[in-house]
Amino acid sequence: MKTIHDEAPSAARRCALYRHYDSADWLLYIGISELPIARGVQHARDAEWVQWAVRIEAVWFDSREEAEAAERAAIISERPIFNIAHNNRLAQLECELYRTLKPEGYYQAPRIVRAGEYVGAGRHAAERVS
Q: Average of pLDDT values for 44-49?
């Protein structure tokens, strides 16, 4: 997987779809931007969830339209905790729970073990087991 520093948009205005994760591998937010580093600075200034973000993954698309379609599909299928658009009510409830428990340190993502082998932590690890 390429990072946001591996490849920059060309004159054709490529667009990145990025995902922010917390330390337990919970997907906090999915977004798109032609300038993801600048967008990250905006998030750092304005978004509550940035305080928990420890990892970013990005994938580049040849156009903003392609990135928008991929973003919508990713939000619907992956249910990031802090996205509002394209997300369902369950994800909104998870967001409220996360906000309530994470700052005080009570929140601990469940560790997923299959056949005695550690698979990961958080909701996305549970989905990998299914």
A: 88
